[in-house]
Amino acid sequence: MESLTLEDVDISNVPPHVPPELIVAHDIWATPPHQDPFIALDRYRNGPPIFYTPVHYSGNAGAWVLTRAEDIQSVMGDPARFGSKSKSGFTALIGETWDLAPLEVDPPEHRQLRAVLDPVFAPKRIDLLTPGLRQFCNKLIDGFIDDGEVEFVEKFARPYPVKIFLELMGLPMDDFDQFVTWGDMLLRSPTLQGRVEGGQAIRDYLLALIEKYRKLPKSDDVTSIVVHAEVDGKKLPPHRLIGMLFLLFIAGLDTTAASLSFFFKHLAENQDNQRRLRENPALIGAAVEEMLRAYSVVTTGRHVMQDTVVGGVEMKAGDWIVIGMMLGSRDPAEFSRPEAIDFDRPQARHMAFATGVHRCLGSHLGRRELGVAMQEFLGRVPQFGVKPGEQPRMHGGIVFGVDHLPISW
Q1: Domains of the chain by range and CATH?
Q2: How far, in Å, CA of 385 to CA of 266, rounded?
Q3: pTM for this predicted structure
Q4: Cα separation, 54 vs 14, whole angstroms
Q5: Which residues contact 113 (CB under 8 A, 6 or more apart)?
Q6: Cβ atoms of residues 74 and 66 within 8 Å
Q7: In what order do the strands lie in the sheet with 406-408?
Q8: What tens digit of pLDDT does each residue of 309-360 get?
């Protein structure tokens, strides 16, 4: 991250209960494009384990930042004290008030909504999708393997999860290019207006989709399951339907692409690790877990529901907390040499998929997508590296990501 100082930001609105020594100028969005955002965060290990940043987060003036796995687990495991409503800011961005469900819905309703989706993402269901994953991987590879080079993010990482999302949702492949465009607008547009237009386009598409599926008999695709779902004998209200489908759209497209890009950036820059996976494909499962740990891409948040204490720090009701999963997954108190990628590391609980009641319901699918992509790519594409004369570009933010990864072989 860029080295902001308190002189660079407005601290006049920092709540009076925040001790001055805990105020740190930290912006999750500010990352020089050629700097690894994960390494940039390591500098916070030298300061207070919990600090307060006056820089905005999801439309709020400031927030507490947790850097230790122990504190992150404590907060995420206690939805009674730390709520999830409106934490992403996506709906406010497009002028709506509904929540992304079940992600931004607290218990007990959270459990009811999650029960609608849990069977869809169960391992047996994911097994049925696996042949299609392999087929599409190879179709993408066919498009560039003879070129000796590819811009990995554009030609592989981003389109790959879109295909899986469309298949899971029962949507036509004709919508593929449009979904990629809208996702890019919402998540990566350089202007606020671009992000708003992308989000509104997604919303309008999903609202029309809901109306279409209301008139159709129930089938086994996710859209139909959501639209026809019942809780306590009643259909889900409109605000829950759009909130659930909007969440599936975002979660299904960006996080997998981000993880995949960081994985392949690492392999392109670390030839020995890449060679080892080629020689021992059975190690890919362990490699996926280790790189999920080292490259946990998601930053989330909670709002404090009642005056409380976390890690010895007093917080007041209404405060916001920023939770970077990468900080928990790279905590030296939990992992020795956390910055190192070690495929032989004893498996420990990383935070790539969060923890607590809001643990990612798509974790089985995410693991399968990443594992299949690595198996097929390494099985067909020769030893590759970053294209000579080029340099990867990355970004921080709500989801850390890679914008440009040219590789050649």
Answers
A1: 68-319+326-404 (1.10.630.10)
A2: 9
A3: 0.92
A4: 6
A5: 101, 102, 105, 231, 236, 240, 244
A6: no
A7: 149-151, 406-408, 385-386
A8: 999 999 999 999 999 999 999 999 999 999 999 999 987 779 999 888 888 8
